[in-house]
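Example (one chain per record):
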Amino acid sequence: MFAAAPPGDVLAPENLVGRCDAIVLTGGSVFGLAAADGVTSALSQSGTGLQISDNGPPIPIVPAAVLHDLGNDGDKNWGDTPPYRQLGAAACASAAPDFKLGSVGAGRGAMAGAMKGGLGSASIIIEGGITIGALVAANPTGSVYFPDGKTFYAWPFELGSEFGGQNPPSQKDTADPFPVHSRLKQAPKAGANTTIAIIATSADLTGVEAKRVAMMAHDGIARAVRPAHTPFDGDIVFVVATAKNALPDEAPLVRPAIIAQIGAAAADCLARAIARAVFEAR
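Predicted structure:
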């Protein structure tokens, strides 16, 4: 499994490892980072990870991204024992192909602008049988809705009625750069928002190609959130490739064209996943 993340990270294409055993998305700000510790310990105990020497345990590679949701509702009276390590271990033990969306997991305390955020997912199979899927914990500063509070900005990319099938209002959106349902209409706080996501594909990507798909996938945030990538956000997109579908190498421009197709589909899936996260939130 290849993965791409920002330069300087252990997963960066120029570095040695270039693979991971799990990726953790969590809430809880700095306390929530302990969820990755719980996953790391659970994987190591199961024998998963780099076996650098015969004398030590396996060392799982577990990158993580975290939301700041501590200013929202929920019990924070955990004293000197934050629950996130235990939650991470429990999540690792219960990981499965099917999972709930909305106000669960990393999306439990998320806000999408002034609306409830959450956990969202979407996928598609493109030409050649290549699967692309997106998983996101949506907690952006910007709004996911038109001013009507019903139509998602991601509506052009909806498949079926996965987030309500609401058509856009007859009137155009306003020219106001701060939509009514964004936190920028209130009093935004530094570090209080972000959108964290994983794109997974069955294609046999190199680390460099995974990084290009991650760059393209970020456009999905801009399609679903207005405004996106503000100074109050700390967005990140991981890309993982399971390498189940081999890509052709014989023609010099065929492979880059397929990478472009995967990146475009990843952006669409991420936009859909953000809308589904909010649509399913309670």
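Caption: The longest strand covers residues 130-139.
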